Amino acid sequence: MKKELLSIVFGLFCLMVHAQSITIKGVVKSNTGENIIGANIVLRGTYDGASSDLDGQFRFNTEEKGKQVLQITYIGFDTLSMSLELKDQNLEFNLNLKETVNELNAVTIVAGVFEASDTKKSVILKSVDIALTAGAVADITGAMLTLPGTVRNQESGQLLVRGGAAYETRTLIDGLYVQNAYNSTTGNLPARNRFSPFMFKGMMFSSGGYSAEYGQALSSALILNSSDVATQNTTGIQLLSVGGGLSQQKSWGKSSLSVSGTYSNLSPYFKLIKQNFDWKQAPESGNVELSFKTKTSSTGIFKFYASGLSNGFNMNVAVDGDEKQKMPLKLSGENLYLNTSYRDVVFKDWTLFVGSAYTWNRDKIRQNFQLNTLQQSAQTRFTLTKSLSEAVKLKFGAEHIWSGFDENYTEGETFKTLHNENYLAAFAETDLKFSEKWLARVGVRAEHSTLLGRGNVAPRLSTAYILGKGEQLAFSFGQFYQTPEHTQMRRSTDVGFEQADHYILTYQKQVEGYIFRVEGYYKNYHNLLKTTAELPQNTGYGYARGIDLFWRDSKSIKNGDYYVSYSFLDTERNYRDFPTQATPYFAAKHNVAVVYKHWIHGLNTMLSTTYAFQSGRPYNDPNSSVFNGSRTPVFQDLSLTLSYITNIKDNFTVVYIAANNVPGFRQVSGYRYASTPDEQGHFSGSPILPPAKRFIFLGLIMTIGEKFVKNQGNNDDL
Question: Which of the residue ranges 123-127, 145-149, 331-335 would you say has the lowest mean pLDDT?
Fold first, then answer.
């Protein structure tokens, strides 16, 4: 089935343009007669166009009239431009493109970068891989955790990269910072990424050494690029085992508006599936989203996105070290996120991007204390980009982020923390193509924090060289700074930036249908925050080093596709309340993931399975004299997803079932210990387990107005 059909499996992607006054269609082939899949066919200077499908065919509609230029582009082939005149008749073409430099031999920056896109050929993943990865249940973070360099943290669900804590990874949408990327939660309850993968046309996961364009992340950046104007009117219905949702999308050709709402309540599910936790009120959430996009000119586009979410739960939790003794715990969270951007060509050949984002997030926790936290941030950002020549590309820009942190903690008496931050940054970066085989990206970023009263200058460098057909060697170096977390500066903000230096060396071999990649890295931490003294100080330090391996094969098995990732991590640090340098609790030395997807033609079914293995993680046993010297049992998980595609009253419908930890492996995240020893001087402890041994998810998604045509599946779509 087509990529677009796979996207509709989850009800959020568009397929084709509605009929307008003139239809332009045809087929695109190579000069050797092979169908070209994914060629971009547009009327130059407009947004009217399409991509060629599995048979090399394309079709789109336009309201343009008169003399126009039809332009056909595909990476690795010469651009073809044809003059034509649009009147009232439909047009059909047989087009042939001449191959130039094969894309697999084109030099690109690959060090530390895993890219997901359905619009580019030479990428590690496709966008649809994010949704179809078993165990992730369409969660962006869950899918990224199958890539090398990541560590599974089942008690939080957040993205941990190469020995870095969760706060060291930043999520950005269209280059704009997302302050709270996860749903509100408390310790030992995993959270989900707030955003659907089908909002985005491309994703880039940088496990280190990322561009000078971005900052405030010691370890990693997850960069999400939103889709453009939708081209079809759709109505979506979701019936889920934990809730449901409705969505409506309207297209006016050059503009589109989509509105959606979802509601989930795990109470009925918890009555069927035994839970390890004592729930008084099961997790419940409601979410609404609005997205408006419009073409402001032949080269300009304006986007606006807004989402609001509320979630909460109420439970009894065991007292540390005593599973029989319980205490109440209640959480409620509300989040509002706004993102708006404008992109256009100015001054003839400069590309201007201007964007702003606002986040409002409030969390309330009630236990034997009361904790009220309000976080806000407002960002403004601009970039200018220009290709000075075929060998030189320049980009520069600046951003300002205001953020506020307002926390009230009450336990007998009230303690208040109030921080207001104005963060300023500017960057400049240039791509230098020395030859067809050698490319370098050189950049510098300058930052200043009014909260800290300090600034920094961070150089960045990435370079890549082609060794042979489909083979690249790449190197990346960079200095990265981050403001310490507000929760670590409650007693004082008279501290400085935390710092990490990245060194990454990458070898990648890519031929049609296969990718092999090996990457070695070293990360040196400076000025980490220590909180053992009366006031916090930047006296912490640490390191992380390791090797990541990745292999993907989408060719050997008919209608099948699999990839394998492995990471070796050696890391230690001395920060926060650590009494000595030690491996942090969120780091595992060995991490393995095997992901397989298979399209079963006769059953119209997609099968996806993921196996994950992780060696034991450190935890601190107060009965031992070695800090963080104990290790949890190994982590294992086998997840399955089945998606059955059919029609209900001629409406495209998907019925799917997803289950994680199917064999029921015992998954221990760590241990909780009593704060005081017993009469024998022993600290009693208990394991930290997930809410349930396994999670099973059922869903039905219907897209009204679309119809599934049987046996359209193809291995190339996987």
Answer: 123-127
Beta-carbon count within 10 A of 710 CB: 12
Question: Which whole-number Å values give the CA distances from 693 to 158, 277, 590, 612, in the listed order?
Answer: 19, 11, 23, 15
Task: With a cut of 70, say whether residue 78 has pLDDT above it.
Answer: yes
Instruction: Please determine, for residue 530, whether its predicted confidence score (pLDDT) is greater than 90.
Output: yes
Number of alpha carbons in the 13 Å side-chain half-sphere of residue 370: 8
Radius of gyration of the chain, Cα coordinates, nearest whole angstrom: 26
645 closest CA partner among 132, 198, 125:
132
Q: Contact, 58 vs 41, CB < 8 A?
A: yes
Averaged over 144-158, what is the pLDDT?
89
CA distances from 135 to 169, 199, 436, 667 (A): 21, 20, 41, 15
Separation in Å, CA 713 to CA 6, 127, 703: 9, 17, 18
- CA 232, 233, 239, 242 torsion-angle sign: positive
> What does the DSSP assignment read for 603-632?
GTEEEEEEEEEEPPPEE--TTSSSTT-EEP
Per the prediction, the chain carries an average pLDDT of 87
Q: What is the pLDDT of residues 194-216, one digit of tens each?
A: 888 888 888 888 899 999 999 99
Q: Exposed, middle or buried, 562 (CB in 10 Å: 0-12/13-18/19+)?
A: middle
Number of Cβ within 10 Å of residue 401's Cβ equals: 22
Q: Phi first, then psi: what are they for 177, rounded to 5°? A: -65, 135
Q: Which of 474, 591, 575, 569 is nearest to 209 (CA)?
A: 474
Distance separating alpha carbons of residues 436 and 439, to the nearest angstrom? 8
| CA–CA dist 607, 560 (Å, integer) | 9
What distances in angstroms separate CA 132 from CA 54, 154, 549, 560, 717, one per listed residue?
A: 20, 20, 22, 13, 12
Q: In this prediction, what percent of the chain has a pLDDT beyond 90?
A: 55
647 alpha carbon, distance to own chain's centre: 31
Q: What is the pLDDT of residues 304-341, one digit of tens each?
A: 999 999 999 999 988 776 777 788 999 999 999 999 99
Structure confidence by residue, pLDDT tens digits, 369-417:
999 999 999 999 999 999 888 789 999 999 999 999 999 999 989 999 9
For residue 26, the surrounding DSSP H or E stretch is strand 22-30
Domains of the chain are 3-100 (2.60.40.1120), 113-717 (2.40.170.20)
